[in-house]
Design a protein that fits this description.
Blueprint (H helix, E strand, L loop, with lengths): L14 H9 L2 H14 L4 H23 L7 H16 L1
Helix pairs in contact: 3-4
C-alpha cells in the first residue's frame, strides 16, 4: 500500500523517512536517528545552532585534510584559526 495516499487528510507525509530510505544506508539512518534523539534535549534554536557548528567543523576538517595536514593535528589548526579570527576581530 502507498502510505502517502493512505495518510490522514491534512497530514504531512514523512519526508524524513523517505529521505532515509532513498539516500542513506540503514546504518547511516540509525546514526542520524540517534543524533536526532540526542539533539531533542535542546530547544530547537539551540539544536539548530549545534548542527550548524558540527557541519562547519566537518567542512573545516575536510579543508585541513585536503591541504595534507595530518588528521591528528587538525584540532590544533582549528584552534589556531579561532585565535586568528579573534585577533582579526579584536
Amino acid at each position: 500500500m502507498d502510505e502517502k495516499r493512505n495518510a490522514a487528510p491534512g497530514s504531512q507525509p514523512d519526508t524524513a523517512q523517505d529521505e532515509r530510505n532513498s539516500h542513506f544506508s540503514e546504518t547511516e539512518g540509525k546514526v542520524a536517528e540517534s543524533i536526532a534523539q540526542y539533539m531533542q534535549r535542546y530547544p530547537f534554536k539551540k539544536a539548530h545552532e549545534l548542527y550548524e557548528s558540527v557541519i562547519l567543523t566537518m567542512q573545516f576538517l575536510n579543508e585541513v585534510k585536503a591541504a595534507g595536514i595530518k588528521e591528528e593535528r587538525a584540532w590544533e589548526v582549528l584552534t589556531l584559526s579561532a585565535a586568528i579570527d579573534c585577533h582579526n576581530r579584536g
